[in-house]
Amino acid sequence: MKSTSQPQPTVFIIFGGTGDLAWRKLAPALYNLYLDGWMPDHFSIIGTGRTKLSDEEFREKLLEGINLFSRSGKAKKEQWETFSKNIYYQVSDLNDSKTYQELGSRIESYETAWNEKADLIYYLAVSPNFFPIIADNIAKKCPEAGLDRTRIVIEKPFGHDLESAKALNKQLQGIFDEKQIYRIDHYLGKETVQNIMAFRFANALLEPIWNRNYIDHVQISVTEQLGVEDRGGYYDGAGAMRDMVQNHILQLLCLIAMEPPINLDADEIRNRRVDVLKSMRRFDADAIRFSAVRGQYGHGWIEGKEVPGYRDEPEVNPESNTETFAAVKFFVDNWRWQDVPFYLRTGKHLSQSASVISIQFKNIPHSIFPPEAAENWQQNRLVFSIQPEMSIRMQMQAKRPGLDMTLNPVDLVFDYSGTYHGKPPEAYETLLLDTMLGDQTLFMRSDQVEAAWDLIMPILHAWESKKSLSFPNYPAGSWGPENAEALIAQDGFHWFTLPLNGKHG
Ligand code: NAP
């Protein structure tokens, strides 16, 4: 976990500097780190891409992204000018070995000017098919830069399946030490997600009840109102299981289910997360249809606007079998969680955009209240709302004011906006700073990525080998296919949603 130390002199090389990720996320994050005093005295940011741009044109492009997306608002002239002097652009093709020689020379020239060696962070903000060629070339063509000071940041998706993830891990580990490989799952950098660990392990009252004796079931919902937008080409080869469940949602589950670590060391925490993945019950082919539901959106309405069905989206196969919705019931087979269902769901073009974890506690053993007092009865729930609302809520029963005894669910609320001033750092700020500081706690280790793939492969195989005859099976703007309701209703529960006004339904 982060210390207060300042990063060493650093050269950031962003492969894909002209891309969407660099524009919307990386540039605003680096700029905010600079504003907050986290950047080292000596740093350079080199963006690369095939688009022909001068340094000045590249700076202008990043400034546009910062002005649109930075949490600190539009850049102030003076601060931007000092920051942007450190930004450079290199027109280059990733398939051309000259690219890497030229980068090596640039890095050397900065180090000569600074009169000290720099840490080198290679950020791979490009399509995954470039990951192997970049890694190979960094090793071959930039030896003068020193491999031991090098870190490589890999964006999702990390592999397309278990085999390709293993192959990529093998290749990277043939070049780099695991300590140099930073596999990003940006969910882990979110403030509210980091708070799950703080909340669980800094409060004595939770641990005694954090187990199968008190918890009925857990739900993790990551729902999106957006459709595939302009990412149809990528998404049609991926789907909801690969895009959301294999990485973000399983990592959330790990944070909820992990055993208490003995300290905050990166590997200690990552060991505890891997333990969860390894304890998760594997699916046999017959069980999948009872435990997993897939969906694909059809034409519908989102906030009064008509939107096309998935198969009519640009770059999507008109007969696509790709799921835009997935709901799965998992079990964690260990002493703490035996027989506690973990329901996960995610989907595109759903009714609401929200990432919410709900932990429902068991019912009271005996009620002393007459039925008419408990008409609005609701079992206790702890709700972590990750986005858009950032809050932690404990839902309890209390007496409604009045002369009679009527019970009503009420929320004990910790709401970020009401408790703290200012906007918290974006996930990418946290993760980029951690990369500079060499802290891997919030990054995925090779065994974690592989264990997550291993878990979902049987579902992917089952869905890919049998075309869904019911697709599209939910209209855009709804809460997903009916089968997803049945998946949880058959166990006597229903999907929890946090209404936009924050009051629970
Ligand atoms: P993008 O907008 O399509 O950008 C791709 C970048 O790759 C561009 O800068 C492009 O530069 C460069 N590029 C492509 N072919 C090249 C070549 N032969 N030589 C040199 N540069 C080349 O993609 P993105 O949305 O930024 O995503 C980048 C990566 O981040 C992907 O792996 C994606 O899955 C991941 N990711 C993105 C987001 C996001 O919010 N965008 C979120 C999570 C993960 P030119 O066009 O100038 O050649």
Automatic annotation (TrEMBL):
GO annotation terms (biological process): glucose metabolic process; pentose-phosphate shunt, oxidative branch
Residues reported to bind NADP(+): 50, 93-94, 156
| UniProt domain Glucose-6-phosphate dehydrogenase NAD-binding: residue ranges | 13-195
Which UniProt keyword terms apply here? Answer: Carbohydrate metabolism, Glucose metabolism, NADP, Oxidoreductase
Q: Name one Pfam family in it.
A: G6PD_C
Cellular component GO terms, alphabetical? cytosol
Query: Which residues belong to any copy of the Glucose-6-phosphate dehydrogenase C-terminal domain?
Result: 197-495
| Gene3D superfamilies according to UniProt | Dihydrodipicolinate Reductase, domain 2 (3.30.360.10), NAD(P)-binding Rossmann-like Domain (3.40.50.720)
Output the PROSITE patterns linked to this UniProt entry.
G6P_DEHYDROGENASE (PS00069)
Q: What does the record give as the active site?
A: 248
Pathway this chain belongs to: Carbohydrate degradation; pentose phosphate pathway; D-ribulose 5-phosphate from D-glucose 6-phosphate (oxidative stage): step 1/3
**What InterPro entries does the annotation carry?**
G6P_DH, G6P_DH_AS, G6P_DH_C, G6P_DH_NAD-bd, NAD(P)-bd_dom_sf
Catalytically driven reaction(s): D-glucose 6-phosphate + NADP(+) = 6-phospho-D-glucono-1,5-lactone + NADPH + H(+)
Binding annotation for substrate: 186, 190, 224, 243, 348
Q: EC number(s)?
A: 1.1.1.49
Query: In Gene Ontology terms, what is one molecular function of this protein?
Result: glucose-6-phosphate dehydrogenase activity
Task: Give the protein's biological function.
Answer: Catalyzes the oxidation of glucose 6-phosphate to 6-phosphogluconolactone.
NCBIfam families (UniProt xref): PRK12853.1-3, zwf
The record's comment on protein family reads: Belongs to the glucose-6-phosphate dehydrogenase family.
Question: This protein is called what?
Answer: Glucose-6-phosphate 1-dehydrogenase
Q: Which organism is it from?
A: Larkinella rosea
The gene name on file is zwf
